[in-house]
């Protein structure tokens, strides 16, 4: 049994507060759905956004062979803009490979109107071996793609999210 992790950072051209509010606060998901139109078909949430909250995100089938991403919040610290969650993928190649995965995402201010999104994905594969670098990159890029879509939406609709 091998536990592995991959960490990436992404420079984002919106404030930490706005990125956190739209993508990770655990509140209203309507703007997140607008931002990720074509990527995410729906999000259902059971809970108040804090630890134990379960979210079910249906992925657009034209985008990925992964069908559903179920998430359970392990920790959320709004002051530190950090959320740690465990995930289960239903359907697709990643579901056949991953035994478990936990993400920790932190949004850090990086000057006026900018931030850095830091993501760590800890995972364990069913076969006990680490993912290849290419598959590991695909795994983390799924989360980074969501951040990019939110960034693009906020930049294109500056007055909508305040």
Write the layout of secondary structure elements.
Elements: E1 3-12, H1 16-24, H2 30-35, E2 40-46, E3 54-59, E4 68-77, E5 82-90, H3 93-97, E6 98-109, E7 115-125, H4 133-156
Antiparallel strand pairs: 1-7, 2-3, 3-4, 4-5, 5-6, 6-7
Helix pairs in contact: 1-4
Domain Bet v I/Major latex protein: 1-157
Subcellular location: Nucleus
Protein name: Bet v I/Major latex protein domain-containing protein
Folded structure, characterized:
The protein is of the alpha+beta class and 162 residues long. It is built from 4 helices and 7 strands. A 7-stranded antiparallel β-sheet has the order 1-7-6-5-4-3-2. Belongs to the BetVI family. It is found in: Nucleus. This is Bet v I/Major latex protein domain-containing protein. It comes from Urochloa decumbens.
Question: Summarize this, please?
Answer:
The chain has 162 residues and is α+β, with helices and mostly antiparallel strands.
Helical/strand content category? alpha+beta
Overall strand count: 7
Helix-strand sequence: EHHEEEEHEEH
Radius of gyration: 15 Å
Report the β-strand fraction as a percent range: 35-45%
Keywords:
162 residues, alpha+beta, seven-stranded antiparallel sheet
């Amino acid at each position: 049994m091998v536990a592995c992790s991959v960490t990436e950072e992404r420079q984002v051209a919106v404030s930490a507060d706005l990125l956190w509010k739209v993508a990770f606060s655990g509140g209203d998901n309507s703007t997140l759905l607008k931002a990720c139109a074509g990527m995410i078909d729906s999000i259902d949430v059971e809970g108040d956004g804090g630890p134990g909250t379960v979210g079910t995100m249906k992925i657009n089938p034209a985008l990925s062979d992964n069908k559903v991403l179920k998430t359970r919040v392990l920790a959320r610290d709004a002051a530190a803009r950090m959320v740690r969650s465990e995930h289960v993928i239903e359907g697709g190649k990643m579901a056949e490979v991953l035994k478990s995965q936990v993400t920790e995402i932190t949004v850090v201010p990086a000057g006026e109107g900018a931030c850095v999104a830091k993501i760590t994905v800890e995972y364990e594969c069913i076969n006990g071996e680490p993912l290849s670098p290419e598959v590991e990159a695909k795994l983390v890029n799924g989360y980074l793609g969501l951040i990019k879509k939110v960034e693009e939406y906020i930049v294109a609709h500056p007055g909508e999210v305040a």
